[in-house]
Each structure stands twice: as structure tokens, then as C-alpha cells.
Amino acid sequence: MFQPGNRSIKHTRTNFAMRVNSFLRQLRTHPTLNKFVIKFGLRRKHTRHVNRWIRFCSVSRARHITINFTPGVKDFFMGPANSKYIFPLNVFSGPEGSSTHVRTLHLGYVCLDTTSSDFMIFANLKKLTLHKISFLGDLQCLMLPECNSLECLSISFCSLPGLSTCQPLQRLRCVRLHYCYLKKIELEAPNLTSFDLTNQPIPFVLGGSLNVMEANIKLLAKDSPYGDNLDYIYTELPAALSHVHKLSITSGLFVYDQLQGFSKTSARFINLRHLTMYLPLYGEPKSISGILRLAYLLELAPALEELELHVNGGDVDVGWALRGNMLPYSHNRLKRVLISGASVWEGLMELAYYIFRSANRLESMVLDPKIRIGAPQLDGWMIDIGRETIKKLFEGEEFQSIITIL
Questions:
Q1: Torsion angle of alpha carbons 21, 22, 28, 31, nearest 10°?
Q2: What InterPro entries does the annotation carry (predicted)?
Q3: What is residue 277's predicted lDDT score, i.e. its pLDDT?
Q4: Does residue 140 share a domain with residue 165?
Q5: At CB < 8 A and 24+ separation, what contacts does 42-45 make?
Q6: Which of these, 123, 218, 209, lies nearest to 177 by C-alpha position?
Q7: What are the C-alpha distances in Å from 4 to residues 86, 182, 366?
Q8: How many helical (H) and strand (E) elements, i.e. helices and strands, does the chain have?
């Protein structure tokens, strides 16, 4: 790790800058570069050196630019803005520079100043990656609309209150937003195909995005007691991603008998074929109703063909018994189901039984007693007990051709 007070690190940074300067001086003419990459833990006090490199990069008409100063920064630390190098966007609009040649731009641990009045458009930029960036100005209403050719946008660990576009981004295909703690998302991207979000639950709008094939949603925990995100999953997600084909959701779920109700909506995942849920569970392993709230997934996704549920936590109990108190919901498309961590929550066995009775065309259901996500993992003897418990619950002849116990 780079530590600001470490003299050897300061010396290393100085030596690095000198080596880069020496290398660039050896180039008598400015070649046309395909790629220009700097990855080192530099800061604002190295501006004099870095400015020279950026000017060289612009004059050399580099197509793929990476300026990444994150080495040495701890994982979740975004860093103070006043220590970060200010990336000079205006350099690309100077008399010798041009932004039209840039195809990909990857910036890490810098300040991005979008207030420059002479900033010219990155007309041919296809991929923009911003990691641990501090913004001086409004990203969405100045910079993004000018990137008419943008196909992929990735923003992670940036202090960004919201992301919206002032006009449609017609070519945008892929959006990735991780740990930016956004309060709102309003994107106009009619040809969007992939959406990846790690954030606290917020309403978001993907206006006109009817072609989203795949979405990955990781919901950060709420602060309120029993504050899981199931209501949000059942209401906001189908409203925003009604046409998605493949969906992955990661979210904690509280399992208590008092948690029986949940919000419903008329919105549906009308095209959803494959749903994967990673659910760290918290609560009472013997609770049935808390987990049976997941049964609503069958109603929410009428076209669902494959369902994966991965859970952790809980305990193994040999005294479980299938109840079958909940009336099945007839589902005509579901073919394959996989449940891992199946032996540690009694409600999961009841859910599996409910799905078995509801899915009219079910071809296979795999019940895995091992925990595949998070920690702690089960000891071998607990897995063996869990496996025998599952076998005892599903030993009837009607289960034999469909249910596989790993």
C-alpha cells in the first residue's frame, strides 16, 4: 500500500515520473499511438509530470487511453478530491489535440473537470470507464450527451448523486454502476442490452430500453430492522426491467414468521427466462413463511424457464416435515430449478415442494446441501446430515424422476 508519509514511496513515485519522462524524450517525433497506459499511484502534486504525458497522448492521437492512479488505494476508499490529479479534458481541444481519435477512456482516482467551456466532444468514444473519480461539474448533462458513439459506460466507487441523460444515447449497449450510492437513475438508451447495478434500492428508469437481455442487480443492505429488499424486488425491478431475459439478483433476506406480507404489483418480467438469486439469509432457520415469500416469483415471471437460488446461514435439523399448506400456482414454463444451501433452512424445503407442485413442465430440480455463497461453510458431517434430511423429505416415488440430491 502507498502511504503518504512514507519517504520510500515518495522516492518511488519520483523515480517513476522521471523514467516516464526519459522514455518520452527518446521519441523524437510524436508517433500515432494505439494505446497509452499509465498505472501508478500518483497524486495532484505530480501534475507537472502528468500534464506533459497527457499532452503527449493527445498529440500522438492515442486511441485507447488509461490513466489509472488507484494502485495503493484501499478497496472501498474513494479518497479526497483535493489530493487527486485533475484530468485536463481541455487538452484534447487544443490546437494540436483532438478528441475524435479516442475510442476508449479509462480513468482511475482522478478529478474529472467537466466545467471547461472549450471541452470538445469525444465524438467517437465507444467505452468510458470511471473508477474512484471526483467530479468537478455535472457529468451527465455536459459530457455524456456529447459521446454520441458511446457503447459501454462503467462507473464505480464514484461520489455521484444521480445519473441521467439530457438526450438519448442511441448506441449505448452496456451500463455498469457499482458502489456510487446513487439516489436516482434516469437513462435514455433505447438499444441498451446489459445493465449492472450495485446500489441501495432506488427507483430507476431506463427509458425506451426494450432490448435489455441481461441485468445484474446487487442491492446493498438497509439500516432499518427487518429491512430486506423483497418489496423492492417485487415492485421496482419488474417495472424497470420488464423485458429482461436473464436476471441475477443479490440481496439479503430476513426470515421471520412475522414477515409474511409483501408488496405486489401489476408489473411483470414478461420475457424473463433465467433468474439467479444470491440470498444471504438472516433470522430463524425454522421459519416457513419468511422464505415462502419467494413463491411469488412464479407469478412475477410467467415465462421463467430456469431458476437458481443460492443461500447461506441457517442450521440443519432432522425434525423437518413437508407441510404443503400453500396452494400451488400453476406455472407452465419452468423446466429447471437449482437450490444450493438447501438443507439449512426448513422454509427452503417447503419452497422446493411448492415449486415442484406448481411447475407443470418441470424437468429437473437439483437440491444441493452445500453452501455455495458467503461464509461460514458447513462441516462435512453437517452436509451429510443435510443430505439425508433432504432424501427423507423427498423419498416418495413422485419425486424420483425429477429431483436430484447432490
A1: -60
A2: At1g61320/At1g61330-like, LRR_At1g61320_AtMIF1, LRR_dom_sf
A3: 95
A4: yes
A5: 42/13, 42/16, 42/17, 42/69, 42/85, 43/69, 43/83, 43/84, 43/85, 44/82, 44/83, 44/84, 44/85, 44/86, 44/111
A6: 218
A7: 18, 30, 52
A8: 7, 21
Say what the pLDDT of residue 303 is.
Answer: 96
Say whether both 224 and 169 belong to one domain: no
Residue found by looking up cell 437481455 in the block: 213
* Separation of first and last alpha carbons in the chain: 43
**DSSP track, 304-357:** --EEEEEEE-----TT------SPP--BSS--EEEEESTTS-HHHHHHHHHHHH
Based on the domain organization, do 183 and 305 belong to the same domain? no
Same domain for 196 and 281: no
> Exposed, middle or buried, 329 (CB in 10 Å: 0-12/13-18/19+)?
middle
Under DSSP, the state recorded for 208 is T
Residues 91, 50 within the same domain? yes
The boundaries of the domain holding residue 92 are 1-212
347 shares its domain with 269: yes
Confidence of residue 1 (pLDDT cuts 50, 70, 90): very low
Residue with cell 404443503: 324
Does 7 or 233 have the greater pLDDT score? 233
What pLDDT sits at residue 128? 93
Q: Among 273, 335, 262, 264, which Cα is nearest to 301's?
A: 273
Q: 186 and 329, same structural domain?
A: no
Domain finish residue from 212, 231, 266: 212
CA distance 123 to 147: 5
Q: Which residue is it, cell 503518504?
A: 4
Q: In 3D, which of 252, 261, 296, 289 has the Cα closest to residue 275?
A: 296
CA distances from 200 to 220, 229, 232 (A): 5, 9, 10
C-alpha cell at 246: 436473464
CB-CB neighbours of 372 under 10 Å: 14
Band of residue 4 on the pLDDT scale cut at 50, 70, 90? very low
Work out the average pLDDT over 337-350: 86
C-beta separation of 202 from 187 below 8 A? no
Binning pLDDT at 50, 70 and 90, where does residue 108 land? very high
Confidence of residue 338 (pLDDT cuts 50, 70, 90): very high
Say which amino acid occupies 363: E
Domain finish residue from 212, 230, 246: 212
Higher pLDDT, 140 or 142: 140
